[in-house]
Amino acid sequence: MNLFGVMSLSGSGLAVQRQRAEVSAANMANAETTRTEDGTPYQRRQVLVQADTSFAGALQRSGLAHGSQAPGASVAAVTNSTAPPILRFDPSHPDADANGYVAYPDINPITEMVDLVGASRAYSLNAGALQAEKGMLTASLELLK
After folding, report:
1. Under a CB-based contact definition with an 8 Å cutoff, are residues 125 and 14 in contact?
2. What pLDDT does residue 144 have?
3. What's the predicted TM-score (pTM) here?
4. Which residues have CB under 8 Å from 143's CB, separation 6+?
5. C-alpha of 71 from chain center
6. Residue spans per domain, the chain
7. Who wins on pLDDT, 85 or 69?
8. What is the DSSP letter of 84?
9. Sequence-separated (6 or more) residues with CB below 8 Å from residue 12
10. Burial of 90 (0-12, 13-18, 19+ CB in 10 A)
């Protein structure tokens, strides 16, 4: 793989980690949302990451294929959690049912913070790799002068 392919690999990692951070932030922001547009509590969202493990990707990594997409990671899907909502007794809440229970999303702020910190650190590592690649390209251009 050439240096530009490595840059593409780091770029795909940056995009995936940005998406993970955005989803975790949205989950934290909606941890107390009891009613969405469809009338149900907010559901925790999760990012499913997919690595390029295709045959074309293997050929690209080996240098035998030209013109195919560079290997990397991508967001396969952003899915809603299937966990049932948490019921809390609060008869004065406007979204309380006939028994006085309110359905809150099953979102743990600690889990979301761990996911957010992990995405942030992975983003930083990919950015550092991109800077190192940029330095290698600059050094190789200096050799040609």
Report:
1. no
2. 84
3. 0.80
4. none
5. 18
6. 3-31+45-80+107-143
7. 85
8. P
9. 70, 72, 73, 74
10. middle
